[in-house]
Design goal:
Length: 320
């Protein structure tokens, strides 16, 4: 679950944002295909890696734990070792590393788009200067990334990969699903889906969203915090204490945002705390006609579980 959650980018909302641009596609089928394909790819990748690890362990006559290298070593050592057994290994090695390059570039598009969308929504004036904003964001990330290609870049990369893409991402995912299903409400969320797609999500989905997913994510977060150990390079060389403190600072910097802004929202609504847990007046579809219909369906149901008719949006943005 952790591998699928991290590789699909659900915590960073990049997958949700990309789906927003494809309004005419089937959301349910797209989400199912992406998750299943991600799961199968991860399983096949794991099978290939551990098969090669077993072969190398047998050839070198050493335990597997001494052959395996954590982190980037799995991709840059294990796979090339397997490719040496292929016909024309130079060709296959080129194809493999070119694939890694495309994979990295491909992953940057939704991540950067998510950042630009958040900035443009927060500061609408930036929408007029989208190209300039994108150039500044790319340049900033490029300068920051230079530290990962220095002589000690592998140490920096391993530190960031351990702390910034570990328990903090799971904590954010846990807070997202809890806030959506427990505060916004699974019934309200299901009715929103029915308003958009014309059918209520299956009960197994609602059960998973409400109980199973929060429980699993909570267990993973607690386990990650309890079993956290000082980071090591290649499972051999320990980092200095200040590096571990810096890593936890980076991890907590992203996690603290959720309780911090929740406290800000509660403070702003201190005269009516309940309003802090309710959608704003502008919440709803962007299309005016759909927004009126959505508000009417919500107003006509006290528990917000009423049946909602199917509504679609055509390519030009008009309601049908």
């Amino acid at each position: 679950m952790r591998e699928v959650e991290e590789s699909s980018g659900t915590t960073a909302m990049s997958a949700v944002l990309q789906r927003w641009w494809l309004r005419e596609a089937s959301a349910c089928s797209d989400a199912s295909i992406v998750v299943i394909a991600d799961l199968i790819t991860s399983l096949l990748g794991g099978i290939a890696i551990f098969a090669v690890l077993g072969h190398m362990s047998l050839e070198l006559q050493v335990p597997i734990e001494e052959v395996a290298k954590a982190g980037q070593g799995l991709a840059f050592v294990i796979y090339p070792e397997a490719l040496t057994t292929f016909w024309c290994p130079q060709l296959w090695s080129f194809i493999f590393f070119f694939m890694l390059y495309l994979l990295g570039i491909d992953s940057e598009f939704p991540l950067l788009q998510t950042t630009l969308t958040v900035l443009s929504d927060t500061f609408p004036v930036l929408r007029k200067y989208r190209s300039i904003t994108a150039f500044i964001a790319c340049s900033t990330c490029f300068v920051i990334g230079l530290s990962c290609v220095t002589q000690g870049g592998q140490y920096v990369l391993n530190l960031l990969d351990t702390y910034c893409a570990g328990v903090s991402a799971l904590f954010i995912a846990m807070c997202e699903v809890m806030a959506l299903m427990w505060l916004y409400g699974v019934r309200r969320f299901s009715n929103d889906i029915k308003f958009m797609l014309g059918k209520t999500p299956p009960w197994i989905f609602r059960f998973s969203w409400t109980f199973l997913s929060p429980l699993i994510l909570c267990v993973l977060v607690v386990y990650g915090l309890v079993m956290a150990a000082p980071v090591m390079y290649n499972n051999v060389e320990p980092y200095p204490a200040w590096a571990n403190r810096l890593g936890w600072f980076f991890a907590s910097l992203s996690m603290i945002q959720i309780p911090l802004w929740a406290a800000v929202a509660l403070f702003r609504a201190r005269k009516n705390i309940r309003s802090a847990f309710e959608p704003t007046d502008t919440w709803g579809p962007a299309e005016k006609k759909l927004l009126q219909e959505y508000r009417a369906t919500v107003a006509n149901s006290k528990d917000r579980t009423c049946n909602v008719a199917l509504r679609t949006v055509s390519a030009n943005g008009t309601a049908a």
